[in-house]
Specification:
Mean pLDDT: 79
Largest sheet: 4 strands, antiparallel
Radius of gyration: 37 Å
Binding site for ATP: 99, 147, 175, 181, 192, 202
Family: Belongs to the NDK family.
Strand content: 5-15%
Catalytic activity: a ribonucleoside 5'-diphosphate + ATP = a ribonucleoside 5'-triphosphate + ADP; a 2'-deoxyribonucleoside 5'-diphosphate + ATP = a 2'-deoxyribonucleoside 5'-triphosphate + ADP
Helix content: 25-40%
Keywords: ATP-binding, Kinase, Nucleotide-binding, Transferase
Shape: globular
Distance between the termini: 93 Å
Number of helices: 9
Protein name: Nucleoside diphosphate kinase
Structural class: alpha+beta
Number of strands: 4
């Protein structure tokens, strides 16, 4: 059986009336039109394919994504500032206070254990009823804030537990243990992330810089109330 090629009518009309060259060119034009039609149909359905023709999945060359922007000034949770980068060698002092809500809820032991397990050394501890004057001095940087009177009433509403802690990078590390100011934004595993739900009742205070750590310890502890001692576990914490 012979194969018969069927040409479009425009090509077959004057097949015997034209020269071979003309017929060849016309035939090529007809098949080119047919090929273009097929390509157009293929292009119109290309978006339905599982992978595009130039999919990077099977590419020999990988394209690296643009580098992420640096967040050197502060972390995502907003806890750290540049001066809070933990020192690997310097021993620091930090003031930690269990606020009235933490005392009333019986969380003192839980909070102390967090810092003990971390490896910090406790040098001062007392249960204390804070007078208004001391509270205002402690929070003097917030004096212009609208919530300042409410804050003072809160801190003086019941006894607080004052603590002085010492350790390598103690200030930054303690802030990380405590968590974000807003407990709902604090990471799970932090004190506020686990034990609090509202900024106005966030259980615990921690110094935000080594300088403030020294200032606050001097403000809340009198001379002779701090105890310097050597922990037997010290060689197991630092080389």
């Amino acid at each position: 059986m012979e194969a018969v090629a069927v040409l479009p009518s425009s090509c077959a009309t004057s097949y015997f009336e034209r020269s071979p060259v003309t017929i060849h060119n016309k035939t090529r034009s007809c098949f080119s039109s047919t090929s273009c039609g097929r390509l157009n149909r293929r292009a119109s359905t290309s978006h339905l394919a599982a992978f595009t023709k130039h999919s990077l999945l099977f590419s020999k060359f990988s394209i690296r994504p643009p580098p992420a922007k640096s967040h050197a000034r502060r972390s995502a949770n907003g806890i750290f500032l540049p001066h809070l980068v933990a020192s690997m060698e310097q021993v620091e002092e930090t003031y930690i206070m269990v606020k009235p809500d933490g005392v009333q809820r019986g969380l003192v032991g839980e909070i102390i254990s967090r810092f003990e397990k971390k490896g910090f050394r406790l040098t001062g501890l007392k249960l204390f009823q804070c007078p208004k004057e001391l509270a205002e001095e402690h929070y003097k940087d917030l004096k212009t804030k609208s919530f300042f009177p409410k804050l003072i009433n809160y801190i003086t509403s019941g006894p607080v537990v004052c603590m002085a802690w010492e350790g390598v990078g103690a200030v930054a590390s303690a802030r990380k243990l405590i968590g974000s100011t807003n407990p709902l934004q604090a990471e799970p595993g932090t004190i506020r992330g686990d034990l609090a739900v509202q900024t106005g009742r966030n259980v615990v205070h921690g110094s935000d810089s080594p300088e403030n750590g020294k200032r606050e310890i001097a403000l809340w502890f009198k001379e002779g109330e701090l105890c310097q001692w050597t922990a037997v576990q010290a060689p197991w914490l630092r080389e």
